[in-house]
Write a sequence for this structure.
């Protein structure tokens, strides 16, 4: 009898344990309904679409905020200046201004309108001033002293400066004549287009102290005045100081 009671008690304890364990086991996840599944799918799709839209917007904003590279302009090479010939020094110290503005003594327009073409219209006269060979501006010359003023020029026209064809002389235009003849031969030999020559006139310093300037203009065929400059408007000039 005692043995039967033992097995009965053991069976009761085991059954109670199984029931207790079954009660303590967590409930499994509930199976969603079809409506809930559809709602979950729609929410997932909307989240994905929103994520993609935000990524696209961020990429576009980044592109717009990046500065656009502006191409730098191509540098234009500066023209290489053509060196002017160096004036030879004879007599007083020489200077080699290359423009009228560089030498105030030479910045003197002629009194009449310059002419370029020859009387027959077949060629034109033009000159480039290359510098003072001697007696640069403000050279000191004693009173009454004879001297020869020389300039360097280039025939940049198409007419030859040649006696018997186109006679070219230096004609006194203004200032102080300094005892020089009003018309003096510009060059003893022919000067062809492109030639560089030295042209001279004979003068003498005035007898009293002071600063003196004289202007001399090439005169072709006795009537055609031409100087240098963009309009042939400047004459050859000199300026001396008599102490």
């Amino acid at each position: 009898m005692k043995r039967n009671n033992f097995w009965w008690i053991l069976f009761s304890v085991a059954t109670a344990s199984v029931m207790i364990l079954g009660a303590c086991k967590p409930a499994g996840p509930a199976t969603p309904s079809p409506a809930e599944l559809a709602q979950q799918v729609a929410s997932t799709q909307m989240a994905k679409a929103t994520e993609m839209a935000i990524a696209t917007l961020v990429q576009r904003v980044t592109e717009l905020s990046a500065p656009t590279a502006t191409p730098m302009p191509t540098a234009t090479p500066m023209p290489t200046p053509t060196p002017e010939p160096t004036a030879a020094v004879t007599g007083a110290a020489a200077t080699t201004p290359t423009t009228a503005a560089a030498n105030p003594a030479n910045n003197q327009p002629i009194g009449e309108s310059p002419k370029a073409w020859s009387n027959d219209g077949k060629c034109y006269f033009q000159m480039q001033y290359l510098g003072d060979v001697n007696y640069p501006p403000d050279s000191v010359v004693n009173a009454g002293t004879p001297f020869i003023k020389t300039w360097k020029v280039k025939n940049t026209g198409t007419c030859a400066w040649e006696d018997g064809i186109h006679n070219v002389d230096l004609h006194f235009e203004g200032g102080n004549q300094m005892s020089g003849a009003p018309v003096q031969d510009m060059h003893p030999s022919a000067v062809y287009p492109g030639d560089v020559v030295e042209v001279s006139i004979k003068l003498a310093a005035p007898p009293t102290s002071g600063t003196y300037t004289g202007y001399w203009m090439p005169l072709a065929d006795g009537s055609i005045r031409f100087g240098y400059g963009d309009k042939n408007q400047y004459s050859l000039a000199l300026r001396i100081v008599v102490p």
User: Anything to note?
Assistant: The beta strands are 127-132, 139-140, 146-155, 168-175, 183-185, 196-204, 210-220, 224-225, 236-242. The radius of gyration is 53 Å. Helices lie at 2-24, 34-65.
